[in-house]
Amino acid sequence: MGSGASAEAKSSGSEMMGDKLHKTAAGEEVTMEAAMEGKKVIGFYFSAHWCPPCRGFTPVLAEAYTKSLKDKGMEIIFCSSDRDEASFKEYFGEMPWLALPFSDRKRKEALSRKFKVSGIPTLVLVNAEDGTLITEDGRTKVMKDPEGANFPWIPKTFKEALGEKFTKGSATVGKEAIEGKTLGLYFSAHWCGPCRAFTPKLAKWYSDIKKELGDKFEIVFCSSDHSEISQMEYYKSHCDAGGDWLALPFDKKDDLDEIYKVNGIPTFIIVDAEGNVVNSNGRGIVGAPASQFPWKPPAIGSLEDPEGINDTPSMCLMLESCEPAVQERILKAVEPIAEKLRDSKEMIFFASKDPSSVSTQIRAMCGLESVTQVDKKGRTVEEERPSSVSSSRGPPKILRTMSSDTPTLILLDCPDNGAFYVGKMAKELDGSGVQAMIDGWKGKTLTRQQLSK
């Protein structure tokens, strides 16, 4: 590592951990520079003595660290979630690595926000040379590879993870089968009931759209089956149903799981030829026509289906009190702003057009009043329902309670430890109020508020 890179890594490390770290529970200190000397990987270990899973994992991690990982170039920094310093010292006394001083609560909280730590134990692995993230799931890496045979566990690139050979029906094909194509990555398994129910729908849709799209699009089956025999039996059923797509070799799927953070199945993700995510909720587009290819999600999604709201700063347009024509005017004005931020992955946008359980919950969490609906007699109605009894008059018409105020804007920043900001559309309804709020958020001039639990 060159001197420039070394200085950059030390600066990055100091920002994350401070200049001093505890070396022993008694309080012996070590400098950041000394801690990083000769290291390849830094593991931030978020844990606490009161947490049973933590107490179960800590001895496993300690053994792996002492026997293999330390000598291979790994250092671990304990980031305590204990409730007091006495508990911290007692727990840290069982650990053979370093620790962030317990008194530095701000630094610990900043690290938790940076790595989006939502539970413990969590082991985040970072490249010591340049500060880049290796994985937020270091716990699995250690459990699967305690001796560090694959250390430093640098993630494979998209093309490395896919490899160069695929099954196509009963034949084997090369990487030319995917080159230049938009891909649908289908994570599924025969033992999964929801997968078996979804697969025939996916197969029919695939069969229909391939007639129009041809070589522009391909699906790759990424098996979560327990054996290669089970995978191939399940894959045959895909082909029989019309889904004669590609199948990844049985031993390759785990690498893609890590890249796309697949936590459950069935999962269907649309990616471009370079592996960049086009639509993380591919299941939602099954049935969409080929004319909508490559099925990018709308720039402004529905708040009824807030995909990604917990992981990405989100602008929520609360339009429940606006007439439909006004709603459409606002959405048209804001769409260019939303598209730009969506493509840069800085922020996602949602709109709430009608009162719903989701919009009501978000308003309540932000301390705002809910918007209600009333019938012709002025009675509040919880939800709009079609009449269950046949009538020549048809179902009762539900009217929206209108407001002369400009619509409310809620900027949720859940990754920032549940922060939120409240604003208003500009009276012109031209998107300028939205842009001003975004500029204020970036410039840290907005009043930060905390979501209620």
TrEMBL record:
CDD domains: TryX_like_family (cd02964), TryX_like_TryX_NRX (cd03009). PROSITE patterns: THIOREDOXIN_2. GO terms for biological process: negative regulation of protein ubiquitination; negative regulation of Wnt signaling pathway. Residues 376-386 have a biased composition (Basic and acidic residues). Residues 376-399 are annotated as: Disordered. Residues 387-396 have a biased composition (Low complexity). GO terms for cellular component: nucleus. It holds the Pfam family Thioredoxin_8. This is Thioredoxin domain-containing protein. It comes from Effrenium voratum.
